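G., the chain you wanted modeled:
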Amino acid sequence: MLANLNAQSIQEGVNHLYADRFKNAEQTFQKLLAVNPNNADATYWLGQTYLDKDDNDAARQLYDKALAANGNNPLIMVGKGHVLLLDKKKDEARQLFESAITISATKKGNDPNILNAIGRANVDAKEGNLEYAVQVLEQALQRDPKNADIALNLGNAYRKKDPGQGGGKAYENYKLATQLNPNFAYPYVRIAKLFETQKQWDLFLENLNKAVQVDPSFSLAYYELFYYYFYKLDYSQATNYFNKYVGSRAGEDQVEHDYLQSQLCWAKKDYDCAIAKAESVKAAMGAKVKPKAYRQLAYSYLGKNDFANAKTNIDAFFAREKEIFLPTDYQLKADIYTGGGASCEDVYALYIQGAAVDTVLSTKIDFMTKAADYFKTKKCTKQEADMRLAIYNTKKSPNPAGLFNIALAYQQAGELPKADSLYTVYNTAFPDSIFGYLRRGRIAFTIDSTMTQEPYVTNLLQNYQKTLDIALTDKIRYKTMGTEAALVLAGYYNNVRKSRDTAEAYVNTGLSIDSTHAQLKSIKEYFNKQPVKGTQKPGGKSTGKPSASIRKPGSKV
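Predicted structure as tokens:
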């Protein structure tokens, strides 16, 4: 009878833990230990509760104390091994796991509960061995094929080991867990999270609703539903699930409630409320406050355009968060720093860091595109160009046509060598397109308007000649570009090379494209009125070359 009561109480505590009701779970296990301090199951699960609360020190102290009293308890050895994995002591952890398996083995085989705990530890810890986790959990399920908790952990192991495979083995084992225990809500949440990564929102909602159907008190499902509607900007439904979440957590600390309510206040632009709730979270948690509270305060102060306090809190967030950053974290920091007067270059660095943490190509490109658009609105032309080039280089099979606009942005930013190099690549990909040649010609003239320095002279002549050649294939479409090329080439040969015949030939070519072009007509008339180079005025010296007035190129494409 006492054994049955103990098992029921352990399961009650585990249910609280899986539902993220940590205080209730902790109290349940502590009550069991008050009755029997040597209760290994209660000790193990109390330690797991501490670990889920990110209180690794408490778990370490608990397991060390229990092992000091009974150094050969296999379940406590696994708990200690779990802590060692979190401490990045993989070899020591593996030794404890193997010892626990050996100690707990019977004639029937290895203990499935010990194998299950080992699998759970390796899935949870960043340093865990996922191949090993799958191995021991598969063995555990063979030994106890009706154990839904083992199936759940095996699903978790496969999901973490084989991400991006559409669920596969993870989905199979989660479904098995629901079949073995139809009232087990947690596997439905795990299935929902699989569909979340696939953006199959109907199935995501279906499984969360199934979770609260089989267990109306399962807080974690309400938490997920809150955020689903929150991010859909359906704040009415988000508030509804927030209330259900709070209602399912009787006796829990108010910290998580206040944090969610701060987000709701922020969404409704009640920034004072958002700040007050987030500050209450900081006060309640003290030194153990999680970084997300600082991030929430940063969002809230930004909403009030209080950039100084926003910066204080976003800097605190980045200083305290050590591992998991989202692209939106860097976007928030960029918005705050921009408001505080940061340079375009500094803000660009933040967006690049944000893109780097996104491991999904499509969302990475979306993030970078928004950043480029942002720089465009802020007139940070070079950073816009840098970002659009980064997007181009990030794509698996980019279209070289996109290089033209990137090069144009660099040109507008005054980054002429960079623009020229990109126009060169564009011209290679599209040798019959006039636009890249025209732009390269303009760049060469901008850098060296005297048309005397290499390699700019060669670039100018080659690219304006190519521009003119293409313009002659469609004189109507390329009229303005062709006449610009003719003018520049005529100016070069007249003023630099002192070759009137060649210059006049280019003027005539330009007039063949547009016979009404005022400047070309004026130069043609000038040439016609002037004697050919080398003729003498009566009683005077040679007239020399005529000086045709050639305008600076640069008319828009």
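The chain is about 70% helix and 0% strand.

Shout if anything looks off.
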